[in-house]
Amino acid sequence: MGIGSPAVVVLDSYPDKQFDAALVKVYPAADRQKGTVKIEVQIARPDLQIIKPEMSVKVSFLEIRSPGKLEPVITVPKSAVRHDEGEAYVWTVREGIVRRVSVVCGLTTETGIEVRQGLKDGDSVVITPDVKLVNGGKVSVR
After folding, report:
1. How far, in Å, CA of 13 to CA of 68, rounded?
2. What digits encode the pLDDT tens for the residues 27-51?
3. By 3-state DSSP, what share of the chain in percent is helix, strand and coil, each rounded to 5?
């Protein structure tokens, strides 16, 4: 189990709801008395109508199967990734239309952030979204 490992989150309050997630942080200190380690996962598509801070959840990690070949790693500049109410996202451009795309981030390096889910190879990403962008709005690429 490493950073980016796929997981499923089930809320104790809503046991019939499941959310796909990925491991984003493992804290180095362990609670030896309880035999626990604190972790953080990022939910890929959170339902913010029911998910609230400090809710109790159960996290199940999924087995990572080696496909036999290495998959390409997508990395974007740190400036491209934005956060809103616990959701990481980027702005993509296709045929002059800008779209907000939720992403699951992996490793952060000095030069960028790995995107584990949400983007595919060849996607155009706005790297400095300083202006107010509107989902579905028209933009020109420079």
Report:
1. 39
2. 888 888 888 888 888 888 888 888 8
3. 0, 45, 50
